[in-house]
Amino acid sequence: MSNPSRRRASSAKKAVRRTAVFATTGFVVILSGVLCLHSLFSTGEAAAAPSLINGSVTVGSVQTKTHMVSNLAPSAAEATRENKPKVETAVYNPSSAKQTDTGSALKIAPVSFEDDDDDQKEAVAASVPVKKFGDKISEWNKINGDVKAWLQVGGTNIDYPVIFYPQDVNYYTHLNYRKQQDKNGVIWADAKAVAGSAENLTKNTVIYGHNWTNYSTPKIGDANDVMFAQLPAFHYLDFAKQNQFINFSTAEGDMRFQVFAAFYTEIDFYYNNSAPTTDELKAIISSARNRSLHDYDIQVSGDDKIVTLSTCTRVFGKTDRQRFVVMGKLVDSTAQNVTVTANNDYQKPNL
Fold first, then answer.
1. How far apart are CA 314 and CA 222, in angstroms?
2. Average pLDDT of 254-281?
3. Is a pLDDT exceeding 70 seen at residue 115?
């Protein structure tokens, strides 16, 4: 049998040790707090607040994750129009490439405003000036000689080098900018497109990009979206009102396009004709505007030059014969925002 007085002495010693531990722990916590406060006030540094860039909020560099789905490309038989190339449309996997393989390390979310703040809306919607990307193009051209241009779309994180590879429109479908196998591919131009000055561009500069993360119900500003996955944000009228400009640059010059149509289409519509005649371009523009979810108060003719951004969608069901497309007209640096209203009678894709 144990001695009660010895047990009491042992218990007293344990209590003293616990008290010492608690006191020491409390002192460390207090000291840590004091040091943190000292660091904050002495350096004047704190977590950076979101900053407004090109009508968007920079939310920081985020390692993204993509969710792979089945190939979204049309079959060869579906490219029914004569001489119309079959273009596979597949997105970017940061796990298989360095972070610098993305055109921009920043993930951007659109800014929303109260409906009555019209002045602020106008200021931000027009805040995507003509950008100069010559240095970026030159840097990326050293990594991959097929990089000939740069694309930036207002209100999105689309801010990437553009590949021109006239030998085969599908060559980069499953390659990244460093020509490594990657289902996400790159941002690439149609085989007939020309990377030159504004005067030398074809009438329709068609650019493709994959979308694996935003193809059903469109979202706006999801950090997981890469390549053209944020393009479907133009589905929404408020977003379309606030974001009307696209920057496109080559080594020969910096250009600005103003959006005039955002629509869903079946692949049988030859919207991606990169070298149309004047009459063919008129027909493309007319059909695009009939299909557009929004009416843009801007004149566009067969004498203009346009840019066409194309990506995959599943908004109209599981078929891979549908695309989401945004078109813009080449304008000068003085172009202003136009009125954008809902097109309540837009032409739906014939699927």
1. 17
2. 97
3. no
